[in-house]
Design goal:
By secondary structure, the chain is of the alpha+beta class. It is built from two helices and four strands; from the N terminus they run H-H-E-E-E-E. A hairpin with a 2-residue loop joins strand 3 and strand 4. It is rod-shaped. The termini are far apart.
């Protein structure tokens, strides 16, 4: 008898034609809204991460370019040179190249710093190398 009642109950659920209640619809809409909100917050984070990452790539390329420019020189003197470069993203990168003696040897220390500001946060990237001048 219990199996027959369970079968009738299942059939009544399948043949039900009343539709959804207002409470069921409101809960469904709220859950879908929370899911969409979660995806949008995650998307914003990914976009910001890509933007910051591309700026670090631009800064690295600018520093390497300046480092190669210094390595190609035939004579070296201790000096500091600063210039500004506007990247593809519209951000202004400031490059500072510092050439100095290295501990009284026949080596020069070359340091290239690239700094910029993105999302009101200052960033800096530094590359250093030694060049033999003897």
């Amino acid at each position: 008898m219990l199996a027959a009642e369970a079968k009738r109950f299942r059939l009544s659920l399948i043949k039900r034609k009343d539709g959804f209640t207002l409470n069921e619809i409101l809960i469904s809409v709220a859950l879908i809204g929370i899911g969409v909100l979660g995806f949008s917050v995650n998307t914003i984070g990914v976009i910001q991460g890509n933007y910051i990452s591309s700026n670090f790539t631009i800064a690295t390329n600018l520093a390497q370019e300046k480092m190669e420019e210094v390595k190609a020189r035939t004579s070296f003197s201790n000096d500091t040179v600063t210039d500004s470069v506007t990247g593809a993203s519209g951000i202004t990168f400031t490059r500072t190249c510092i050439i100095s003696d290295f501990s009284g040897t026949d080596l020069k220390e070359v340091e290239v710093r690239v700094s910029w500001t993105a999302y009101l946060i200052s960033h800096q990237l530094t590359l250093k190398t030694l060049i033999y001048i003897g």
